[in-house]
Design a protein that fits this description.
Layout lengths: L11 E6 L3 E7 L3 H8 L10 E5 L2 E2 L2 H10 L5 E4 L3
Antiparallel strand pairs: 1-2, 2-3, 3-4, 3-5
């Protein structure tokens, strides 16, 4: 969750795939890296697919907008083989 004061970086680079998902292309310093450190068994890695963000699924542009602007992020992420 981002602090109310200022804007914390998510620390995530993605690229749209199939216009309905986001592929993780890099994880940098920020909230996601903090998550990875705190939850090593559920770490988000390069190549994983973001299937939904804050209940938004099926539209990569809307999911990306949620990542950029929402104060709270709930993401459904899937490891691809």
């Amino acid at each position: 969750e981002r602090p109310l004061e200022g804007r914390a970086k998510v620390g995530l680079h993605v690229k749209p795939t199939k216009q309905s998902q986001l592929s993780v292309t890099s994880v940098t310093e920020g909230l996601l890296q903090d998550w990875n450190r705190a939850h090593p068994q559920q770490e988000v890695r390069v190549g994983y697919m973001i299937m939904a963000v804050n209940g938004v699924r099926g539209d990569s542009a809307l999911m990306l907008e949620q990542i950029r602007s929402a104060l709270r992020l709930v993401m459904y992420v899937r490891q691809v083989a």
